[in-house]
Design a protein that fits this description.
heterodimer, A: about 400 residues, mainly alpha, ABC transporter involved in vitamin B12 uptake, BtuC, 2 domains, two-stranded antiparallel sheet, two-stranded antiparallel ribbon, 17 helices, globular, B: about 240 residues, alpha/beta, Rossmann fold, 6-stranded mixed β-sheet, 10 helices, about 40% helix
């Protein structure tokens, strides 16, 4: 135990002093120019005593004195995970689906709203997964395609009165075209250069949306976007149809759910297909992939376009839900958020990304009570996450495809 | 030896921007041969192979494969034609499994049962790959990675196999193992092999003919056995 203590007490002491040094300018320097020390010292002492307890626990644990206590826990958790792995996948899949379906009934308006957000970001995240996770292209402007999809629906709807169901595929298509336009000249670049170019593209889209007054109404945004309409049969004068506007958030939730599920299925299929394998080869070694007969440029463009399509679909749904679009929603920060979700969840596993999306959207909502410390806690959680699980919440597993074969 | 070369380089110039790596290189490789290109560091050996595959752009001259110019054919169109390279430093896909690496070699092919058979064939050539078929490529040892790289190239069913420094960074016993297999591929499958090596002794023992490349130019061309006994070569490349 003393040995363990000797190993880390120095680091601990330095860290605490460092914290004191950081804390004082934040708490001790006041706007009117006066300096104080008392508050800093009290806060620091609180933190010191808190971390000291953690420190002692850590030392006892690492010298093995807690084994009698931790061993059974580790054992049972291992058994549990084995049990889960042995369970056929349809059981937990259908359980999840049922849970997702009854979710809005069980909860209120606000949680449903958050859930819709989660579902839309799942589409975005999985689209980015195809680009960044599979093909290994760092895309910092992914939100631009979300914006293109959203504005396609908003403009067509408000200016030309086109309905949602016509615009929905068009939103995907225009995002796809935008993806090809950007991808064609830029995808010859690799790595960092590509990241910068996509970053630039994301900003260009936002700035265009912001300045093209006649088309996008600039920073004021487009108001009065119609929500989704469905034809519903009415039995009054014989059989006629009437348009039913989806106004209730709960019903909207189901649309988002369907889109998210379709996206998950599509991306899973891509993942295990020939295309997925080609993209992974490109990620691993582009020249080697080329030498093995993979048309790297074509597949990179395909990945980019596919990622854009999913984002475009999500964008159309986003516009329909908000009934309002403005360039504010498609800033660089949003791109970074989506990328963080993908990285946090585990660059190359679909369940991981879904979990990452849930974490990054739900956590800020949960921490809302902490008010101004919200982002601080959020950042801290991310740092801790990356320290302890650098390969993401759920690390990628190699494919099952092989087991079926042999 | 048949009259028409399967692979021919005619007065090839290439390089990287202002750096001229190859100057007026002409090679002829006939079907069924093992040809070695030997030379020092920076002589342009790897560039030769990369130019054949179109990764490094050709500046002047022409490359003929089976009598047809492949100058304007994209690199990824070459494996279907039967021309495949094992690049220098192996360059396997590290985060994919051994089996996935092999499947990627057969990327342009659609005949599934045939692919499965070829995978088994590669496993019979390199039993260690069969044992580790679910292991990630990056976790293999250097020798195993080289075997995987050769196996992956074999999956394209090459008529001409370009091998870039297969002995790089490997223990002598592994090198011998790999060269045995290269000879086996040449003999039993009739694959023509163009071998680029720094280890001149080894390469010339395995080859039927050899070229010596010096600062981007071919300085000597002869039967491998005569090169092996050429006093100048022995002095320059075999350390005598």
């Amino acid at each position: 135990m003393i040995q363990e203590f000797k190993k880390i007490w120095k680091q601990y002491a330095i860290a605490m002093l460092w914290l004191l040094g950081l804390l004082w300018p934040l708490l001790g320097i006041h706007p009117d120019g006066t300096l104080s020390f008392k508050q800093t010292i009290t806060v620091w002492l609180y933190i010191l005593s808190g971390t000291f307890i953690c420190f002692i626990i850590y030392i006892i644990n690492s010298s093995g004195n807690f084994k009698f206590f931790t061993k059974p826990i580790v054992n049972t958790s291992q058994k549990l995970s084995e049990m889960v792995q042995n369970m056929p996948s349809w059981i937990w899949k259908s359980a999840l689906l049922i849970g997702a379906v009854i979710y809005p009934i069980l909860t209120g308006r606000y949680p449903t709203d958050v859930a819709i957000n989660v579902l839309l970001y799942i589409c975005l995240g999985l689209g980015l997964y195809v680009v960044a996770g599979l093909a290994g292209m760092l895309d910092l402007g992914h939100i631009a395609f979300y914006g293109v999809g959203a504005y396609t629906y908003a403009i067509l709807n408000v200016k030309y009165g086109v309905g949602f169901w016509v615009c929905f595929p068009l939103a995907g298509l225009s995002a796809c075209i935008a993806g090809c336009i950007v991808g064609y000249p830029t995808l010859r670049m690799r790595g960092d250069y590509l990241a910068i170019v996509t970053l630039g593209f994301g900003e260009i889209v936002r700035i265009i949306l912001n300045n093209w007054m006649s088309l996008t109404n600039g920073p004021n945004g487009i108001l009065g976007v119609k929500t989704i309409g469905i034809l519903r049969p009415v039995m009054e004068n014989g059989l006629t149809f009437e348009i039913f506007w989806v106004k209730k958030l709960e019903i909207f939730y189901y649309f988002a759910l369907v889109l998210a599920i379709l996206t998950i299925i599509a991306v899973t299929r891509i993942n295990f297909s020939r295309i997925g394998r080609a993209l992974e080869a490109i990620r691993e070694d582009e020249t080697a992939a080329e030498l093995m007969g993979v048309n790297t440029f074509y597949y990179k463009l395909l990945a980019y376009a596919m990622g854009a399509v999913f984002a475009g679909f999500a964008g159309a749904l986003f516009a329909a839900r908000m009934k309002f679009v403005s360039p504010e929603s498609f800033t660089f920060l949003e791109s970074v958020m989506v990328l963080s979700m993908v990285v946090l969840g585990g660059m190359s596993s679909i369940p991981g990304i879904i979990l990452g999306v849930i974490a990054l959207i739900v956590l800020p909502e949960v921490f809302r009570e902490l008010e101004s410390y919200r982002m601080l806690v959020f950042g801290l959680t991310m740092i801790i996450m990356m320290l302890f699980r650098p390969s993401g919440l759920i690390a990628a597993k190699r494919k099952k495809m092989m087991e079926n074969k042999s | 030896m048949s009259a028409q070369p399967i692979l021919e380089l005619k007065n090839v110039h290439s390089g990287y921007g202002s750096i001229k790596a190859l100057r007026d290189v002409s090679l002829k490789i006939y079907p069924g041969e093992v040809v070695a290109i030997i030379g020092a560091n920076g002589a342009g050996k790897s560039t030769t192979l990369m130019t054949i595959c179109g990764i490094v752009p050709l500046e002047k001259g022409d490359v003929f494969y089976n009598g047809v110019s492949v100058k304007n054919i994209a690199p990824e169109k070459l494996p279907p034609l039967g021309l495949c390279q094992v690049p220098e430093g192996r360059r396997i896909f590290p985060r994919l499994t051994v089996e996935e690496n092999l499947i990627l070699g057969a990327f342009y092919r659609n005949d599934k049962p045939e692919i499965q058979r070829d995978i088994e064939h590669v496993y019979s050539l390199f039993p260690v790959l069969g044992e580790r078929n679910r292991q990630k490529g990056g976790t293999l040892s250097g020798g195993e990675q080289q075997m995987l790289a050769i196996g992956r190239a074999l999956m394209t069913k090459p008529k001409v196999l370009l091998l870039d420094e297969p002995s790089l960074g490997l223990a002598p016993i592994i090198i011998h193992q790999i060269f045995d297999i290269i000879a086996d591929i040449n003999k039993n499958q009739g694959t023509t092999i163009l071998l680029v090596e720094q280890n001149a002794n080894l390469a010339l023992q395995a080859a039927t003919r050899g070229y010596v490349l010096e600062t981007g130019q071919i300085t000597l061309e002869d039967k491998a056995s005569s090169l092996l006994h050429n006093p100048e070569i022995r002095k320059a490349y075999l350390g005598e």
